[in-house]
Recover the amino acids of this structure.
């Protein structure tokens, strides 16, 4: 449509005008126009959803499961989620009052923020982090406060670093480990320190654990709400996208105390009504019978992780060994480029797409995010191309 | 060891350097393990799965059910050996149920296979009956879907 007036932007809500569009878009446009591009820029599994999960959804459709469900999600699905957390982490979530099935973790994060933030409330957000944390905070009327994590500490956050950014307006701490984009995880000891900090300052902790099942190298994922006294003050977010290769289904959930869950449900019922029944049926199958497929995919990610870590180390790029998610975050400052230029020049010269670290917060500068959710062959080829680029284009 | 085997079963052409990196072991260790696995016949051979039809070869595959009279002392083994020694025979399994041996045969033509069954298999002493089934179209072979239409539909870059 052709706009006849030029002042439409002034008619937009100030909240929307305050947030910048995602920095990833630019690379998408260049990369999409190339033929033989190898993309390490994709933030989703390269596996297709396991067949048994897809098949259960097809069967559900054939039997006519096309209606709304309860606002909070199908009772069987919530029961299954509660059971999973009880068995795996020893949590005591009540399926009737503590669980809300959402349209992906994205919706869960949005309504969690809207449920707990008052205008001007500050949210501590360790960076580098997923691109929507700040935007969701701003849209919900809160103020995102970036807390830079340090490479020396393998991008884990410490209470001392959080403390520096604490004010009397701080209400929420938003953490996401295993981390997108760095691949960092937090150990039990790290998280216990964060738990003490949250308790001391009476903060609500929103813990995005979408990559929890993708934890490697003999490490076990630690669920934040399973730490002593943390269940009540934690809004735990998880979903099926990453572990079960179900990104396009848009299905996730939140686990929180009954008051917060009821508040989130109120927003959810007026804005979303319920998550799609097709995706809920598939999610139920994933929880009941999907673990073996998930484990197989995790084992494959783990091999790719070692291959790509080995590759970057051998070509002399400084990087720490990622222990979670499916990202590696090498430091590219030795090449003389900043992360944006590195990503752009690499794409033009060698047709490898990756994402500049600066897209995930200022302290991501000097790094690039490479996703290893792609085939071994492509990873090997991409490593060769990146090595070529570094040899021929060092500034 | 299992992981190494699984990787090779999927793609036996992976260079040792990649295998070593993926398994977090040294190349020397992986080489050594490969030698051991080959020696102990856990790794039998490094085959390539080929779609010969696509290449242009019109081979005929038949599955033959064979009934046997077991022999004293050796049971089915001696007859099975007489059968599996033929180059035309690709696979032989001893089965439970209404027949004893399942034999998969490849030949150049229908006539070729029929001839082989009639003159070589059914004449073996102890073979009491054969039933031949000719294969029309393969969908999946050794865990590989022949015409896999699933492709990468993801956006090139996503958060």
């Amino acid at each position: 449509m052709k706009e006849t007036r030029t002042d439409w932007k002034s008619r937009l809500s100030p909240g929307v005008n305050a947030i910048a569009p995602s920095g990833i878009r630019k690379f998408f446009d260049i990369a999409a126009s190339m033929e033989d591009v190898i993309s390490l820029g994709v933030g989703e599994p390269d596996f297709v959803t396991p067949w048994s999960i897809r098949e259960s959804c097809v069967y559900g459709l054939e039997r006519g499961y096309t209606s709304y469900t309860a606002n909070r999600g199908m009772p069987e699905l919530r029961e299954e989620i509660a059971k999973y957390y009880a068995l795996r982490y020893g949590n005591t979530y009540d399926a009737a009052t503590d669980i809300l099935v959402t349209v992906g973790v994205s919706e869960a994060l949005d309504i969690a923020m809207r449920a707990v933030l008052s205008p001007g409330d500050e949210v501590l957000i360790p960076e580098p982090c997923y691109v929507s944390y700040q935007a969701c905070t701003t849209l919900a009327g809160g103020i995102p406060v970036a807390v830079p994590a340090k490479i020396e500490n393998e991008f884990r956050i410490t209470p001392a670093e959080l403390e520096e950014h604490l004010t009397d307006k701080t209400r929420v701490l938003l953490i996401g480990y295993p981390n997108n984009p760095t691949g960092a995880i937090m150990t039990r000891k790290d998280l216990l320190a964060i738990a003490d900090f949250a308790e001391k300052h009476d903060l609500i902790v929103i813990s995005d654990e979408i990559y929890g099942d993708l934890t490697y190298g003999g490490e076990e994922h630690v669920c934040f709400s399973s730490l002593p006294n943390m269940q009540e003050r934690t809004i735990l977010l998880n979903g099926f996208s990453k572990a079960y290769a179900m990104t396009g289904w848009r299905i996730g959930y939140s686990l929180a105390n009954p008051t917060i869950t009821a508040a989130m449900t109120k927003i959810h019922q007026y804005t979303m009504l319920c998550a799609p029944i097709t995706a809920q049926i598939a999610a139920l199958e994933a929880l009941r019978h999907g673990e073996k497929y998930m484990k197989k995919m995790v084992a494959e990610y783990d091999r790719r992780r070692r291959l790509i870590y080995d590759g970057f180390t051998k070509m002399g790029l400084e990087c720490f060994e990622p222990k979670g998610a499916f990202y590696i975050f090498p430091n590219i400052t030795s090449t003389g480029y900043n992360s944006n230029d590195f990503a752009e020049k690499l794409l033009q010269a060698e047709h490898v797409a990756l994402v500049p670290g600066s897209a995930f917060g200022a302290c991501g500068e000097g790094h690039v995010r490479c996703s290893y959710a792609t085939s071994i062959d492509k990873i090997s080829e991409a490593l060769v191309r990146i090595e070529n680029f570094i040899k021929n284009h060092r500034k | 060891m299992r992981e190494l085997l699984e990787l090779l079963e999927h793609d036996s052409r992976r260079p040792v350097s990649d295998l070593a990196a993926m398994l977090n072991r040294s190349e020397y260790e992986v080489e050594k393990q490969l030698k051991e696995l080959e020696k102990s016949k856990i790794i039998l051979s490094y085959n390539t799965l080929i779609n010969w039809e696509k290449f242009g070869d019109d081979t005929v595959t038949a599955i033959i059910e064979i009934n046997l009279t077991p022999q004293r002392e050796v049971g089915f083994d001696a007859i099975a050996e007489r059968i599996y020694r033929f180059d035309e025979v690709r696979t032989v399994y001893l089965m439970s149920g209404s027949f004893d041996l399942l034999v998969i045969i490849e030949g150049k033509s229908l006539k070729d296979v029929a001839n082989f069954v009639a003159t070589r298999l059914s004449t073996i002493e102890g073979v009491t009956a054969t039933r031949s089934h000719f294969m029309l179209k393969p969908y999946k072979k050794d865990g590989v879907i022949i015409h896999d239409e699933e492709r990468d539909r993801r956006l090139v870059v996503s958060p």
